User: What shape does this take?
Amino acid sequence: MSSLEDDKLYLRVEDRSGTGFDSETVRAWQYSADREISEIGRWELQTTREAAQDVAAIFDSNEIERQNARGIAYLGDETTEERRLAHGPLDIVEVRRIRADWRFGDWALWLSEAEPFESPPSGDTIADDIASQTAIGLNTTDPQTEPLDKTFSHPTPWRYLREATVQQGLEFRFTDDAPSNGLAIHERGDMGVEHAEEISHERETIAGRPSIDRGEEVSALAVVGDDDPDTADERFFKSDLLSTADPNADRQLYYNEWDFGLQSQSEVEAVWDQLAEELEAAPEQVDIEATLVDLSERPRLGDTFTVDLPERGIEEESFRVIRAGHRLDEGEERFPVLLSNRVLVRPDDERDERRANQSVLDATS
Assistant: This one.
């Protein structure tokens, strides 16, 4: 799947203004996509300047209207879609002297730009609430079985989706289908497929030397929520050792989660349970950043691979796709990915600004 000399890359742009739509299909090159769990996915490619002008002609104003334009990137020919790569709303197009640079998002872009909920979401399920506010519909059987406990104050659909799925123990990703089937929600751990191909140098499914990061083994978890209105200077709070910890150890390594959106003790305890389940399954975080090649199917968010890198201390262990990249240029196809044994408990720069991610507590103090 790395050599694509016989396939051609095309971009189909649709004008969805009014009740109908027009479309224009043009040749493209240098396709690049990056998607990450709980983040807005992006994909981009290039066309000629003349191709961008042909696209503009389908819009009444003869200018490409961002709010009405959607794109589909695919391999095939001008009339036949052999393999779809991406589908989503236009973010920006920059027309230069010779070429045009196109950037699109996945359907999360629509959710992030949609009007916030006027009143707290009150549908039976998360999917019902999202569909009531946007044109994004569910393409899976709705896995939600319990009503939401948390009250959300005027969230955007994007913020609501991210926070509510964590509370319910669910995962989501966006599809390359039409918006009405653009959202997939799954029970945690059920999203994605298990690939048959092993990731190893022996199998020649990995290019170059991967980067492997290992964290210290976490033994305890604390979750801090908002102020408790019934107590003075206290917050909703839960702190405890994990079931995998040695209670007699001289020191415990805590993962600290600060979320001031948690406005009751039950919400704090629900988040603690979700995070503890993942930490107990993987006390030591292991991340593998690598470029995959020669795969029969492209990696998608949530997919699972068996990784065998014995020279790096990893022997036939399972990892999930946390970040899925896709590069297509001059007939070569590559998949830069981030594989990890954790999904929820992931310190990053955004969290570092508002949370202390890890701290060491002396058990004897």
